[in-house]
Amino acid sequence: MTSAATRPAGPDDLWSVDEHLEDILAAVRPLEPIELQLLDAQGCVLVEDVTVPVSLPPFDNSSMDGYAVRVADIAGAGEEFPAVLEVVGDVAAGAADPVRVGPGQAARIMTGAPLPPGAETVVPVEWTDGGLGEGPVSGMRSRSLAPQGAEGQVRVYRPAAARAHVRARGSDVKAGDLALEAGTVLGPPQLALLAAIGRGTVRVRPRPRVVVLSTGSELVQPGEELGPGQIHDSNSFALTAAARDAGAIAYRVGAVADDAEILRSTIEDQLIRADLLVTTGGVSVGAYDVVKEALSYAADADEAGSGVEFRRIAMQPGKPQGFGSIGPDHIPVLALPGNPVSSYVSFELFVRPAIRTLSGLTDIHRPRARAVLTADEALRSPRGRRQFLRGVHADGKVSPVGGAGSHLVAALARANALIVVPEDVESVEPGTEVEVVLLG
Fold first, then answer.
1. How far apart are the C-alpha atoms of 250 and 360, rounded to whole Å?
2. CA triple 266-350-298, angle to 5 deg
3. If you average pLDDT over every residue of the chain, what do you get?
4. Do 338 and 406 touch, CB atoms closer than 8 A?
5. Predicted pLDDT of residue 4
6. Residue 405 phi/psi, 5° resolution?
7. What 3-state DSSP class applies to 235?
8. Residue 238, strand partner residues
9. 308: burial class by Cβ within 10 Å (0-12, 13-18, 19+)?
């Protein structure tokens, strides 16, 4: 595949879906790594191997609330003849200087507290009388309410093996182990591990900043009353949410009127916070399709190497598309059509892979599957176009939902897949196995 700059394309030439996507991905590069605080790194891709500096847990500790004892002192203990031990104190989590347990002694110990010197095992409090002398108990009394519980005697009604209910030092990970490898996506469990081994920051590829901008003088913000000929702006909400779902930090810009000067000014203002710019609307052949006019002007005024090319893609919906870069930093731009279904399908096919490539991910595409078509009649598709129909996928079957119109938002909201009809297929009969793109 050749790039947009060298591909011989006339004004009436159609690009294939694959050619357009390959051209985008050839121009988009992963963002440079930066050092981030842990919570700021959520969703980011790790760029370095992380090794464990100190074993986890760093010391032997109790997995139960109970009593730390010597094994010999509770051997043979039972309900009729309990072992009676002297309580020498408490060992709480975070204790720096725990008491020592000698023969015939026990220390009251809390979950996570270090196993005190001399102790060999932990007896759960439910196996004891809790120091009350009234038979087995269900739990300990609060130290603040009964400080005397840390002294006196305790009766143990069951024996315990050596190191029972003890978490061994390094039983989770050992010093020098590989904690996380480069390429790992940092979710909550991975951030927990980094925090547990003492890492306050981590080197990652940042989440891409994506600015979403819709165009059209007919667009009104949701919550505002519609006037004659007006509709509510849904595209910018759909695409901003989709960009966040793809892992980006997304900024939604309110709808811009069909005025090239206003649009150019808005775009220039937004470039400072964009790693990728996505526009919707104004890319067809109408007299008010100002995205073409504005981005063509911006490309002419930019440094060498910038430019936005508007293309016709052999697909339905989503035939008109634009791709290039603008500004001194050559920010990538993807200009999508304005019809809601066209813009969303275009996002899934072209923008989502670009966002995930910027993120440094290798798994950039939605998963695909094969499914049996269930429908009342054959699906029709224009020859020479790859069609993407909305569908509901479940249990190896897929059913079309809604018509082929690119304005049918309600049908899109019910769909969880796209049914793919290849360019050389004009009709798909019910019962045929088809490819589907799984949307969620």
1. 17
2. 30
3. 90
4. no
5. 45
6. -60, 140
7. helix
8. none
9. buried
Give the per-residue pLDDT at 315.
96
- The Cα-based distances of 403 to 38, 164, 346, 371 in angstroms read 46, 65, 18, 19
Residues of the chain short of pLDDT 70, as ranges, are 1-12, 143-150, 284-289, 296-306, 403-408
Measured between alpha carbons, how far is 322 from 311 in angstroms, rounded to an integer? 6
Residue given tokens 């897949």 in the structure block: 417
Backbone angles phi, psi at 154, to 5 degrees: -135, 140
Determine the pLDDT at residue 286.
Answer: 58
CA distances from 326 to 45, 157, 254, 330 (A): 26, 77, 20, 5
Exposure of 392 by Cβ count < 10 A (0-12 exposed, 13-18 middle, 19+ buried)?
A: middle
Tokens 């090319």 belong to residue: 309
Query: 3-state DSSP call for residue 223?
Result: coil
pTM listed for this prediction: 0.84
Assigned token pair, 357 = 């490539």
Residue 290 pLDDT: 75
Q: Which residues 6+ apart lie within 8 Å of 67 measured at CB?
A: 85, 87, 106, 107, 108, 109, 122, 123, 125, 128, 154, 156
pLDDT tens for residues 139-168? 877 766 556 566 799 999 999 999 999 999
How far is it, in rounded angstroms, from Cα 216 to Cα 14?
A: 26
Neighbours of 23 (CB within 10 A): 22
CB 114 within 8 A of CB 95: yes
Task: Give buried/exposed letters for 404-429 (b at 16+ CB in 10 A, else e).
Answer: bebebeebbeebebbbbbebebbebe
Q: 10 Å Cβ neighbour count for 176?
A: 10
